[in-house]
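S1.2 Input.
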Amino acid sequence: MTDWLGLVPIFVCLIFAGVGFVQLMQRKSPFKVDLDIILLGVYYVFVIFGYLLFETVPINYRPVLIDGFLVPALYEKVGLNKALAISNLFWCCWHLPILIFGDYMSGTPVWYKLPAFILCIFPVGVMAGLLAIRSKSLWPAAFLHAAHNNYNQTVFGIITIGGADRMYFVSETGILTILCAWTLAIALYFWTKKQLQARV
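S1.3 Output.
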């Protein structure tokens, strides 16, 4: 359904392109075409370019939405612990529909992958939030999220021997990944908390 709805703006764009083409043919000069039609055409070129860009380049939403806006705002209002808890509970809930109804992290049953996935991405989100707070930038969190997705979803799953049950050991549902994520998150949490207290 959404694929078909995506055609609606294209048809609207073609209608205005047709109007502009008719004006161009009748008036015999691009300078005599209504300025509104030309500006609308330029706008649609940018929209189509943006659409093609976002359809072909994977966009890393978490650092922009959560680490760029939500974590700093929450940190100022409710402090470090609550900011990390609220933002990462939101991030965990964001993934639930695709985990339950989609094919995301296939290879384990839903009853296993839901808690395992949450136990994995919660500490990774804590690390991303801490990096955003420490650096006052979303870029360290963006690089962490991109590296996490790349290595967990691509590299570790491919290089791990074990066939179908390898998802129980690596990736975002694997026990080894969960243990590593929690170890690093706890270490970064106490290191960051110590540095934030030293700033005060």
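S1.4 Remarks. The radius of gyration is 23 Å.
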